[in-house]
Amino acid sequence: MTVLDVLEDMLAERRFGDPEKSYVAKLHHKGLDHILKKVGEESTEVVMAAKDAARSENNEDVIHEVADLWFHTLVLLSHLEEPPSAVLAELERRMGVSGLVEKANREESND
Question: Measured between alpha carbons, how far is 93 from 62 in angstroms, rounded to an integer?
Fold first, then answer.
C-alpha cells in the first residue's frame, strides 16, 4: 500500500467525521469554497517558498509547502468524490505526449 492509498483511505474515513476532532472533517464541513481557498493559499505558499529557495539554495520549505498543497488537493478530490487514481490515470495518459500537443488538444476541445 502506498502513502497515496493510505491518505485516500484516511480522507474517506474522516470526511464525515466530527469537525471538532478532525481537520479533514472541518474542511469538508466548511464546504467547497473553503477547500478551494486553502488550495489557493497553499499554492501561493509554494510559489513564495520556491522564490526564497532560489535565493537561499535550501529547498526544505518548498518540500513542506508542496506537501501541504498536495494534501489539500487530495481533500479537494475527496470532496468531489474523485480518487487520486483519476489524476494518476490522467498523468499516465499524457506520458509520451508532448506538453505542447497536450495543451493544444485541450484548447481544441474547449472551442
Answer: 27
Q: List the chain domain ranges.
A: 3-80, 85-111
> At 55, is the secondary structure helix, strand, or coil?
helix
What's the pTM value of the predicted model, to 2 decimals? 0.85
Q: Is 54 exposed, middle or buried (0-12, 13-18, 19+ CB in 10 A)?
A: exposed
pLDDT digits (tens, 9 = 90+) for 70-85: 999 999 999 999 999 9
Residue 99's φ and ψ, nearest 5 degrees, are -60, -35
State the SS3 of 81-94.
Answer: CCCHHHHHHHHHHH
Task: Locate 5 and state its grid cell.
Answer: 492509498
Residue type, 76: L
* Gap between the Cα atoms of 89 and 102, Å rounded: 15
CATH of domain 3-80: 1.10.287.1080
